[in-house]
Amino acid sequence: MIRNLDQVAKSHFVKEKGATYEPSREEIADHIFQLIHMSKLNLHDAGYFTDNLWHIDDVMESFECTEEQAMKVLEEVMTNGEVIHSIFEEIFNKCTALGYNRREDEEE
After folding, report:
1. What angle do CA 28, 32, 34 make, to 5 degrees?
2. What's the predicted TM-score (pTM) here?
């Protein structure tokens, strides 16, 4: 996962500074941060909410597990039917509280 971003960042520096340039960990981390930030902006511009993203570190800071295991935990939690239902219920409650009308084709 992160290793793939490392390769993307390193290839950026090879293109910019030549094949013999070895970027520092800080340069790689900064470039990865920039890539993630731009990706989030692109998703936001396309209508996605990106202010609340979860990371494997959110799991790994509390539990001893691999990156792959942490990602599996996040996948299972975030695609859990109860979590999805709860989010849609909160969207409904907020829109109702704001006085937004339901679309006729969405009426229960």
Report:
1. 120
2. 0.69
